[in-house]
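INTERNAL TRANSFER SHEET
From: sequence group
To: structure group
Subject: Efflux RND transporter periplasmic adaptor subunit

Please process the attached sequence and return the structure record in the designated field. Keep the field labels unchanged so the import script can parse them.
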Amino acid sequence: MRSKRIFTILIVIAIIGVIAFLLFRNKRTLEENKKPVDRSHVPVSVSLDTARVMAIQGEISLPATLAAKEEGNISAEISGRIERLNIELGTVVGKGQVVGHIDIKETQLKLDAAELSIEKLNRDYERNKILVAGNATNANAVTDARYDLDSKKLEAAQLRSQIAKSNIVSPVSGVVTDKKMVSGEYVNAGGVIGTVVDVYNLKAKVYVPENQVMSIKPGQNAFVTTESFPGETFTGKVIFVSPKGDDNHNYLAELLIENKDGNRLKAGLYVQVSFAGKQQSEALQIPKIALVEGTKNPYVYVVQNGKAVERKIIAGRENGEYIEVLSGLSNGEHVITSGLINILPGSFVQSIDQK
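Return from structure group:
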């Protein structure tokens, strides 16, 4: 009986050992399978195309970002405690509108005292003039009295100037977008109290390539579209065309866009600007499918020494399946057009085909 019990216990221990061994082996297999496979040296299969100069025809259409025409800081002209401040975020204000006031009680008391002193000094000056005429005093007394009177008048004028600057005014018309201080706080002269943005007039900065800039003139109308309002077109007017190009031979053109129809457009909005008139020209172009994140953040991958290298570009007009490249690429460079989802900067790549 006893031997059978020992035999049974040994069998149970053996079974438990086998189970433990199998579990341990399976765990090691699972952990090995979870280890990431180093594929950094395995080339990604991609398709390539070549940046090339081709004919482009149609309206001049260029990307831009809207900005406020004017933006100004509401600030204090004199130091002091803010006695009153009538602005909040979103408050609509006009240019020159009084929006607050600096406490000037102490300055006013100083002015009152200065004016009393002026009255006394003026009497002293007149009396000394009479005494000099009667040889009762010397001319220096008149000179000193005149100096004291003029000094006090100058002090009073300075105090009046400080009082006149006690109003807090808005430098531009628009909407308050930032408020840094509240009533009761002390502000130094020139200290910023808030910010006002002109939301009624927006501007767009467009960089026009040299082969198109001659057709754009100040006063010319332009048409603005945005994905935020599909199917709608807003009208702008060219107010400036730079006489000097940048290092990439692009010329800055500024547009003014009225935004009084419910202030629908917002500063910072990405837009497409089209200029009236059509023309045919040649421009460096690449397939639009080469853009990794589209036209809002245009960059591509070029191939250098068998690796994918990220390259920022400035995009221009769209031409069917192609898009103009204003800067960032050179004629003949190879850009990746497929397999982009598997690519990181520095990835090894292998061309399936090349156009």
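Handover comment: Residues 2-34 form the longest helix (33 residues). The helical segments are 2-34, 105-133, 139-164.
Transfer complete.
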